[in-house]
Design a protein that fits this description.
The protein is an alpha+beta fold. The protein has a single domain, classed as Beta-Lactamase, CATH 3.30.450.20. The chain is 25% helix and 29% strand. It has a five-stranded antiparallel beta sheet with strand order 2-1-5-4-3. A hairpin with a 2-residue loop joins strand 4 and strand 5.
């Protein structure tokens, strides 16, 4: 299983890590190179800063549900979603999301592999349920 420590060692794919409240605590240099966000832009900001507006409510609900139940269907497998770049453009990305408890609190990390537009690919998710 991929850990948050493993994600911090990733150099070739964008990585973001957030705390139990959804505040960004880490992005790697590849995240900056691909999406344009600097650490100073995102550290301490809500994870929803990089999510399309149409997905933010669904994300918040699912995030809260996971905190209450500790059950999710989105963890540890690829999910095709959109990610907001610093210039506010959207790109298709494959999210591989992991959760790990540290000091009794859940923390979340994700690899956000950029995807080429592809008509044969699975549809972009508009909603994600974490349970």
């Amino acid at each position: 299983m991929i850990t948050l420590t493993d994600l911090r060692q990733e150099m070739d794919v964008p990585v973001v890590i957030a705390d139990n409240q959804g505040f960004v605590t880490y992005i790697n240099p590849c995240f900056t190179a691909v999406l344009g966000w600097e650490s100073a832009d995102l550290i301490g900001q809500l994870l929803t800063s990089i999510l399309p507006p149409s997905f933010q409510d669904s994300h918040n609900l699912a995030f809260s549900r996971f905190q209450a139940t500790e059950q999710a269907t989105v963890l540890n497998h690829p999910i095709r979603l959109k990610t907001i770049c610093k210039d506010q453009s959207e790109i298709d990305t494959e999210h591989f999301i992991v959760a790990q408890q540290q000091d009794g609190q859940w923390h979340f990390g994700a690899r956000l592999r950029p995807l080429s537009p592809d008509a044969d690919a699975p549809p972009i998710a508009n909603q994600v349920t974490w349970h």
